[in-house]
Amino acid sequence: MENDTNNKKRNYIFGPVPSRRLGRSLGVDLVPFKTCSYDCVYCQLGRTTNKTTQRKEWVPLTDVIDQLKDHLYLKPDYITLSGSGEPTLFSKLEELILKIKEISDTPVAVLTNGSLLWLPEVRYALNNADMVIPSLDAGSNRVFQYVNRPHPDITFSKMLQGLVDFRSFFRGQYWLEVFLLAGVTTPQAEIVKLKSCIDLIQPDLVQINTVTRPPAEDYAEQVPKNQLEEIAIQLFERAEIIADYRNVHKEEDFTARREDILILLQRRPCSIEDIAAGLGLHRNEVVKYIEELSAEGRIETKRQNQMLYYKALT
């Protein structure tokens, strides 16, 4: 475990925040910000600053459990292991899931990029989750390298075999997210390759996504909805498009915090980190509020010195 004196001051729990697929999701953050095995061009959290495949206790397990206990009164629909990087890099993942099961009946979901499922220890660590949602963003090595920019330890064949092997091992709900980029994964030849991979994996459900928030790279472009609908029909019989979250779960706390952010952005442009620090929120929670405000046209995005800033529209 890292000997980081600031660890105890960190918030490892965020939300509940509205999730497009999991209802009111109580998030659990298990790695430092942007510690990941990928550096995806479309990532809403920006570029990866620590690209690694090292699995260790990046944050203290006991602190995560203690903070989680303090939030269970909020009665979320899911406890979701996701956060600021790749959650399967947390070496005590299996122990964490078992401890959550001891203290709560709330189902546990894991949002993962799927890059480490070729490791038996990762598959076993996830075995007691209720739902696992890995990603598949490419049907070939060339596109995989372009879109996901993986750590050198991770090859396309390893990643794909891990997704296939986990299907035969895991008995919970196994959904697959496919993130499409205009002109990159939308040509018919790439769709055919993606379909072949999905047919090998045989998930319970395929969820198709595209760029809806400012990506890490400006050249990662959104696929129009009508095109996504056509691709969904081709990819898998149980495929759906993940719709943007809009006007659902309008709870007082969510609305109040969103208004706090808007007031802050009326004073000065801020980055995600500025908002999180200024209002004492987790950065992943801030992303949800920013998504809502952007969808409503109440804020605009500006890029300066490789950083994204948000400003309220008058």
Give the SSE map.
Elements: E1 13-19, E2 23-29, E3 35-36, E4 50-51, H1 61-71, E5 78-82, H2 93-103, E6 108-111, H3 120-125, E7 131-133, H4 141-148, H5 156-169, E8 173-180, H6 188-201, E9 205-210, H7 225-235, E10 239-241, H8 252-267, H9 272-279, H10 283-295, E11 299-304, E12 307-312
Helix pairs in contact: 1-2, 8-10, 9-10
Count of β-strands: 12
- CATH topology of the largest domain: the name is TIM Barrel
The SSE string, one letter per element, is: EEEEHEHEHEHHEHEHEHHHEE
CATH class descriptor of the largest domain: Alpha Beta
Structural class: alpha/beta
Q: How many structural domains? A: 2
**Assigned CATH architecture of the largest domain:** Alpha-Beta Barrel
Mean pLDDT: 87
Cofactor: [4Fe-4S] cluster
Pfam family, one: Radical_SAM
Domain Radical SAM core: 20-246
Keywords: 4Fe-4S, Iron, Iron-sulfur, Metal-binding, S-adenosyl-L-methionine
